[in-house]
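During the no-cost extension, the postdoctoral fellow (Dr. R.K.) reprocessed legacy sequence entries with the updated structure-token encoder. One reprocessed record is reproduced below for audit purposes.
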Amino acid sequence: MRYRIRPFRNEDADALAKLAVRAIEIIGPCAYSAEQVAAWRARHGDAERYLESAEAGQLILVCVDDADRPCAYALLERDGHLDHLYCDPDHTRKGLAETLLAEAEIAARNSGAARLYTEASELARPAFERAGYRVSQRRDFEIDGVAIHNFAMEKALAV
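Re-encoded structure tokens follow.
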């Protein structure tokens, strides 16, 4: 199968919402408890959120398969914050995360961002590290009363 990266289209919103939820539900239990996965999942699934992000000028890079179906995506905010990086469980281990991170870096450099930063899950952390991000701290917090953690990570961009 061949993949390609393309810009977000409004008709992608529902597919991306479902993709994120599917990734959280299927891959999440590899590093998080059922309670943590449920709390994390509850924060996703709203297709309207993608439309609002695109309308606000945030960049959503969509990785699609041969049939133009979304398989993975990244959401990059204007200030260099990489808010989402999700890959459908049926398409993991194919370099899609690394490809999306490389494309996001190009876009950030072109927009004049001095750095990229994110809050990566246990599961996404290795992909970010391979792309040159460094952990600045482990973040322990709660979602709806459920303790969970992720990692603040960043990558400086040479000017």
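The two ends are 36 Å apart (CA to CA). Residues 13-27 form the longest helix (15 residues). The remaining legacy entries will be reprocessed before the final report is submitted.
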